[in-house]
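BUG-246 | component: ligand-complex export | severity: low

The export step for S-adenosyl-L-homocysteine jobs runs without errors, but we want the raw record kept on the ticket for reference. Input record follows.
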Amino acid sequence: MLENIRVILSHTTHPGNVGAAARAMKVMGLSKLGLVNPKRYPSAEATERASRATDILASAQVSSSIEEAVADCRLIVGTSARTRSLPSKLITPRELTEIIQQNPERYPVALLFGTENSGLTNEELHMCHYHVCIPTNPEYSSLNLASAVQLIAYELRLAFAEFDVPSQRITENEVPITREQLNGVLQHFDQVMRHTGYIQPQQEKQINIRMNRLLSKADITQSEMNILRGFLRSVLNYCDKHKSNK
Ligand code: SAH
């Protein structure tokens, strides 16, 4: 299971934190690291702080956008020191391991860590199915980035290192869609809503944010996606036919 979990660090500003996060991962048996637009990377400081985990740095996937980093993921989990005003369910690191155990078909799992100063952006927060908050002192709640990676990686190790979760047999149609497929559905809705005149330009952003939240919560499977997209296609066809009949 640990090999299906990807740690994604978004817009890190200190290369030392990237190295320290790689080390924190390796001691707990995690190996997949994703970096979204890291500042000053590759860097000697990152390599030094990684100690003997430089293999993790060497194989890290660097992307230019969060969308690209999570495109193939089926479970996206944010991490945050904040407990208020988060758009989806707040869980502890232990609850995260239970969710992963109960949903063995939802992999790869992306764990998103935000930039050192301000944490995850709104765009990143809105694409997460859950948010993990490590319980800390409410008066001083923000951990160093690599320390947060360490604590969550430790919980994952406790839950998954000793045994492999037997993967449930599910049919291809019931596999959850990936983030990239979800984007396809969202774009399709956007296209239809524009075509029918439902979206007014001034509401566009709000509607897109809410549709993203709604469809992320729905945990859409492949067969459900086929129904939604088939329906949306039929709406467009109907509109075209109606227009030419006028
Ligand atoms: N002020 C920012 C803190 C950023 S710390 C915020 O409120 O989120 C950098 C990153 O470390 C965070 O984005 C998060 O990924 C992780 N982190 C820090 N403290 C955490 C905590 N208590 N629980 C979960 N993740 C935490």
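Assignee comment: Attached the raw record above. The first strand starts at residue 5 and ends at 10.
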